[in-house]
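Schema walkthrough. Field components (list of strings):
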Amino acid sequence: GQNIDQPTEMTATEGAIVQINCTYQTSGFNGLFWYQQHAGEAPTFLSYNVLDGLEEKGRFSSFLSRSKGYSYLLLKELQMKDSASYLCAVTDSNYQLIWGAGTKLIIKP
Amino acid sequence: GAVVSQHPSWVICKSGTSVKIECRSLDFQATTMFWYRQFPKQSLMLMATSNEGSKATYEQGVEKDKFLINHASLTLSTLTVTSAHPEDSSFYICSARDTADHEQFFGPGTRLTVL
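Field assembly_structure (string):
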């Protein structure tokens, strides 16, 4: 079956760095997405990785290792507004998005 | 990035009535649109995949006669919740996939409350 695992909840301090991990087992791979979702809102796109390595975009970076079926989202200089759920999603061989359950990130002052 | 709109953004209806939700891709053509449902504190759950001009493909456990999907054009898909009941109260989100790209662009969601 297809499976995506990410921690249920993480807590971090304002100004710090946090890394949210995602491991996946899917039938085929055509890219991995990270989305941010605030409570009561639709997900918003953060990053897309299809090749191994690190993609940096401002305070957010995303890493992919296809051989390990592993990705992480790195958030630097955390702000209170970063409190949200972070969803990992993988596009399988049929270009269907397979979603992780999401990681709720709590930022404390 | 591409823009997807949903209408209405929220709706309250009485049990037994039907509710239609529209999903539009505003600046691109989408041959495929997806309908998701999300209950509080849970992740997105794919309900169905809608391809323009053909019947929608429903995920296991989703009643196709209750959740009617129409994708009549490359920019519009509709989800009709028929004979809605309180347990249908949820956050319904659509996404659209560009024909030239495989990224999904999300609409803002529709919050349905059935009394």
